[in-house]
Design a protein that fits this description.
The chain is mostly beta strands. It is built from one helix and ten strands. It is elongated and about 80 Å long.
């Protein structure tokens, strides 16, 4: 690029104690970079969509559709006996929901920030779990357990559900339960 830049009265010259490149020169040079970024570099591959990782566990019956009442959570342990979760019919369509209204979801009950216990903190009016007793994090159960407010930066681990007839089965965990380095089917 052998382009000669003609200085204007606002441009600064080298040696006057300022940066070597004027604001105008910087913007002109930056325009070429923005153009390259917009059209892509030669040989650049398109990115494949990302999919959430899910740890698969044995299929376990955790409840039935006919036994669920809107806003009344049911506690269950999955995938290990000491990992406590809730199954709840929200009454509104939810991310990852199953059943006729896609409103039945299940989530782990440990805060993702510091593992605070959130048993009994489901708020039906807000379709939220929390606040956590440690730092007041609250999670939205209609949006895959994402953080509404508080210190946590990760969504609640969602229990992946399947429905067969009237039976509800837990088949996996989407996310990492606090205190576990990995969610695998093998226990140490």
């Amino acid at each position: 690029m052998n382009e000669k830049i003609i200085p204007t009265p606002g441009d600064r010259e080298e040696g006057d104690g300022h940066a070597c490149m004027s604001r105008r020169q910087f913007l002109l040079a930056g325009g070429a970079m923005v153009t390259l970024a917009a059209i892509g570099l030669p040989g650049e591959a398109e990115a494949a969509p990302l999919h959430a990782l899910k740890a698969a566990f044995p299929r376990t019956k955790i409840g039935s559709l006919s036994a669920l009442k809107k806003g009344v959570p049911i506690d269950f342990a999955y995938p290990y006996p000491n990992v406590q979760n809730i199954l709840v019919k929200l009454g509104a369509r939810a991310g990852g929901g199953v059943g006729p209204g896609q409103d039945v979801v299940a989530f782990n009950q440990q805060c993702t920030h510091m593992g605070g216990p959130m048993q009994g903190s489901y708020k039906d009016a807000y379709q939220a779990l929390g606040p956590c007793p440690l730092h007041l994090t609250t999670f939205d159960l209609t949006r895959h357990g994402m953080v509404i407010s508080g210190h946590a930066t990760e969504s609640l681990p969602q229990i992946v559900l399947e429905v067969q007839g009237d039976d509800i089965y837990a088949v996996g965990v989407q996310g990492l339960v606090y205190g576990y380095a990995a969610m695998t089917t093998k226990r140490a």
